[in-house]
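fyi for ur records
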Amino acid sequence: MAEGPVMRRGLDALALVAVLGAGLPLGLWALDRACPPDLSRLEAVGRVVVDREGRVLSALPAPGGVWRLPVEAGEVPAHLVDLLVAAEDRRFRWHPGVDPLAVMRAAGEWVRAGRVVSGGSTLSMQAARLLEPRPRNLRSKAIEALRAMQLEWRYGKAGVLRVWLALAPMGGNLEGVRAGALAWFGRPVERIGVAEAALLVAVPRRPEALRPDRHSAAALAARDAVLRWRGAAALPEEERVAAMGEAVPSARLGMPGLAPHLAREVAREVARADGGGPAGREPGAADGRAFADGVVRTVLDAGLQRAMEGLAREVLGGLPERGSVAIVVAELGAREVRALVGGEWLAEGRAGALDLTRAVRSPGSALKPLLYAMAFDRGLASPGTVMEDLPRRFGDWAPEKYAQGFSGRVTAASALRQSLNLPAVALMEALGPIRFASALKMLGAPPRMPPGAGAALPLALGGAGITLRELVGVTAAIGDGGRAGVLRVLPGGAGGEGDPVVRGSAAEAVAEILTRPFPDGGPGGVAWKTGTSWGGRDAWAVGFDARHVAGVWVGRPDGTALPGATGLTLALPVLARVFSTMPSAPRAVPGGVRVVGPGVGMAAGVVDGLRLLFPPAGAVIEEGPLTIRAAGGRRPFTFLVDGVPVASGGARREAGWVPPGPGFYRVTVLDAAGAAASAPVRIRMRGVE
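which gave:
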């Protein structure tokens, strides 16, 4: 008797059931070893970069531009998994990867209808198909069934769920529930509600026909079907009813893109640390070798990062053509970066991969605070030391003054505040450029010299390359009691636990000098310094309060001059706005910082807010009347020579004195707060050397 079509289909169905039944267990072990599952699609995932509290900063696509982001079953809400199991595979918890009841039901429907009515696929079989897509036919079904049991045996239920959650198509180039949640709802999958979870379960059934942005009515109907029919056993009635009242999204949202330069940077670092990626790792944690979750955790603050990017966009609109701005904000003590704006991508037409916080540029005068702190630390000067800002040659080099004119005799504190060049070069000569360069290296900011050049006096004026990140790290040392520490963007490590570069008293003296109001307004209690490279190519401003350290660079990415670029006019107003954006943490300026040194190469003095301007310590003066002058302090003043008061008006900052003869004397001034400044001087006979 000849076989009819119905008979042949029935035999094929029985054959499939037989293969899946009695014969399979015998060869499962051999097949598993000979044909391990191909996890390449699961391994080719993008990265999710999050801030210190787990908030998403950026998402990076998988190779090929597919938004396939990693996810673990334990990271998604329980109601998502419950709805998925209820809608796709109600016996998922107990079958071995293939549901015999579903297979027999599907076979019976096929025999009766003459076509596939129900595939009988389990979540495990769907996971197998997602890993290795194949044509939809009987042979593919058999292979998927084998792979499903293999996945269950190797990785367990959690591993199977992980595959589905990471690879399920969500419309367009979206794959997996993490990418779907970000694109359709604009928030992490961990925070989606019941209605949103139901949509993510529904869309993979027909991903292009159910895309919410193109077919919102169909998407709504499919979601409500999941809630109405499939979710009845998974959720309380009131939750399902409330969820069906919510709308579905009508547009696809952009993927998170905060801190894009940093996101790419840390993703590359993590990939290198992982040996190039997660190849060979398993999708489940049952065997203790959990596949890397692909989430990169940083120490940034998403809220502050968003605020700094908004500020940078505003600033960019007022800059000359092709101007750009970069910003770094870090926690002072921990040296953890809280916000980083790399620059170029901010405006239309300026998009690029260049991170300007890592561009090597000349810092101008922005390194002078470290120079003065080292000089104070080694007794080469103190804030009250009188220095000369006058034309001078240092060997074959005659430093130029940035602005016209010279200030003459000034204190070291005033020279630093005014960023005078000649006093800074004199300090560098006394300190030694090699010692200064070594301190920069210790702070993680090795100066980049021109080819064939070594550390030299121009270091005092920015004669070497440095990055904004490095400059902020150097500035942090001044604000943190002289401690070295490298800025870090990833958790862990010892970013703020370095050895001291200078003593705390020297660092605090510099911090006190630099703590002053912003010229155009801003928060108080911030110590700041500016810098401008020669030719107006780079404008810098760095500063710190009691909690944060920040730096701003303004310039052109290609290094050409920016018209009118100075640290004072372009970068400092941005820095003031940076500190205005953050919670106020003014520095408590101490009243009575002493920095006393032996006066190696320069006069040393004492600063208590009160300074003795003349005579300078160690001065040799010819006989004759002279005027003692003081600065700072609180009136009235008392002037003394060798402990004997000198007549003065009290409220005046000067007093006349006629030395009684040649010899050594100590000149002292006292103020109303009890602060004192003094200097030893020598009076010699007129005309006698």
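DSSP finds 19 helices and 20 strands in the chain. thats all i got for now
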